[in-house]
Amino acid sequence: MDALALLIAATFNAGTVLALAGLGLLINERAGVVNLGAEGMMLVAAIAGFATGVATGSDILAFGAGALAGAGMAALFGALAIGLNTNQVATGLALSLFGGGFSAFVGVGFVQAQLGPRLNFQVPVLADIPFLGPALFRQHPMVYVALLLAFALGWFLYRSRAGLVLRAVGESPESAHALGYPVRRIRFLAVLAGGALCGLAGAYLSVIYTPLWVEGMVAGKGWIALALTTFATWRPGRVLLGAYVFGGVTMLQFHLQGQGVEVASQLLSMLPYIATIVVLVLISRNAGWVRANMPAALGKPFFPGG
To answer: Which residue ranges run through the membrane (predicted)?
Structure first.
């Protein structure tokens, strides 16, 4: 039971990275924008957050730096893809490649750096409950922030006027423009918000989840977060569920090794990516269901007055 509690706790810890990034990408795609640069944004945010944490000793400032770095990278994407109407797919891929190279260059001096002592967080009283305490109530506050963000985003999209406008821009930008809404501005703000959440994910990875800086440490999590939005049919609650499923698969490899299961470590490391491929294949078998849930204008540029 203790091992199971630790596995559940590790699942929430690993899933938080994917949840934050997935929710950010969901905001982008609900506005009709496909940003494939999640991997690059997370890498730049990871080094920004880690470097800030090393310099200041403050996790809060580290998260702030990560969010700003992610938003800055997203602003670059928005200026090109929304402002200049460059191809969204090509621009996102370029952003991902740029982020990987830039973070590696900036992070050379931080490979051996260490953060200050890590604090152990726990919810008073609840953390002492047998099994549930170690499993659920001894997490970093950002784990609970991710949960709240998913519920808040669900309320925003389906219960607020601003969320309705955002979804309208993703469904029919021409109609939203005809009603007087600034479609490009709304899309740009959505891209910034999504980049900031990807930045939080990157900072969480390097400051809390690891905590250290290694070149390429995101290791495909940005691509898994992109797959999550499709897996979740563009709904926040399902993004959260999917993030924890993939987080659990990721941590299962360490759990099995700890239990003495003799399986090649390389095979276990492949599990999250195999799970991603399997899920996408299963979803793609029902293309009509995907189209029914996908924002109608996803990936389509908008030219005011065109």
So the answer is: 6-26, 33-54, 60-82, 89-111, 141-158, 188-207, 213-232, 239-257, 263-283
Query: 173 Cβ partners below 8 Å, 6+ apart?
Result: 32, 183, 187, 297, 300, 302
CB-CB neighbours of 250 under 10 Å: 24
* 24 touches 17 (CB < 8 A): no
CATH pick for 2-114+134-293 out of 1.25.40, 3.90.1150, 1.20.120, 1.10.3470: 1.10.3470
Window from 36-45, 177-186, 280-289 with minimum mean pLDDT: 280-289
Q: For a pLDDT cut of 90, what percent of the chain falls above it?
A: 73
Asked whether the predicted pLDDT for residue 306 surpasses 60, the reply is no
> Do you know the residue count of the chain?
306
User: Where do the domains of the chain lie?
Assistant: 2-114+134-293
Q: Return the pLDDT at 286.
A: 72
pLDDT band (50, 70, 90) for residue 153: very high
Q: Looking at beta carbons, which pairs linking 178-185 to residues 24 or more positions away fall under 8 Å?
A: 183/302, 183/304, 184/82, 184/83, 184/302, 184/304
